[in-house]
Amino acid sequence: MIAPARLFAAALVAVLALTGCSASDASGDGDKASAAKSRTVKTDYGEVKVPSKPKRVVVLNHALAGYLYDLDVPVRATIPEDADGKGTFSPYWAKEAKKDGTTFLPWSVDGFDLEAILALDPDLIVGGGIGFPLFQAEKVYDDLSDIAPTVLVGKKLGDWRSQFSFLADDVFDKGDVYEQHLAAYDRRIAEVKKAIKPPPGPVSFLALTGDGTAYGLVEKVGLPAEFEKVGIEPAPVFAKGGFKVYGQGGDMFELSTEKVGQTITQPSVFVMGFNADTTDVATLKKNPVYRALPAFKANHAYDLPYWVLRGDYDESMALLDIIEKKFS
């Protein structure tokens, strides 16, 4: 049985085909020639035939858009960072987005706006990544594929290296660009490691939502692993605590307020908001549970911007600047 949303998307495709209002129909022979050249990409969701030089790419995850700008792939539209949000370009790719004329698509907790996506007549859709955008893209993968070739970055690709490498090598055939960026990042890692004096370790990491719910970060995944590369040792909080991973990302675990007091006992702790700068060390110090933590009492609790939690390449480079400035 075909889901109603898919029927809707298929119907819209048919209407546009009959009325001739597709943007690709109006774009001339250049687009037709480009569309004739394609390549096949292996994904977790099957093989996808994509155009070799796409010209109207829709990116259904704000956190993935930066990679496409780094690869000089034109982005027709993306979604806001937060569901139901207005949408703001990242400062690390705002210039490129304005040059491309990138717009924001409507996006809510109920899902993507398929009609709005179809109206843009994309020749490629890129989605997936970590968290809610992946969950929603998986639910409507067939509908998206009815609109345009759709490549989802699978959940196994959990950090910027694997995501960037997949998009550069497999999807856009620009593996040399990824290698150049990786080499620059590794050089910066070496520079920062040499320049800093790490805080007392081992360290732990906390992300807090707007309602104050605390999440510890799994020490071998994502952000803590990046800190380890510059000589800041993450504590084995998750490995020894018997916690369960929260959500689709695989990089966090929930902590009750009581558990925060029992678990975050390390000499240093890094604090950040989740999806926004929802809190800071100064605010948490007003809470007796946080004020009593060893790292807070010793003034070794440090603020981080929210966007470092699941940073892309550019944000990860910016994180190295923050670490260098804070501990040099």
From TrEMBL:
GO terms for cellular component: outer membrane-bounded periplasmic space. It is found in: Cell envelope. GO terms for biological process: iron coordination entity transport. Residues 56-328 form the Fe/B12 periplasmic-binding domain. Pfam families: Peripla_BP_2. Residues 1-26 form the signal peptide. Keywords: Signal, Transport. Gene3D superfamilies: Nitrogenase molybdenum iron protein domain. PANTHER family: FERRIC ENTEROBACTIN-BINDING PERIPLASMIC PROTEIN FEPB, IRON III DICITRATE-BINDING PERIPLASMIC PROTEIN. Belongs to the bacterial solute-binding protein 8 family. This is Ferric enterobactin (Enterochelin)-binding protein.
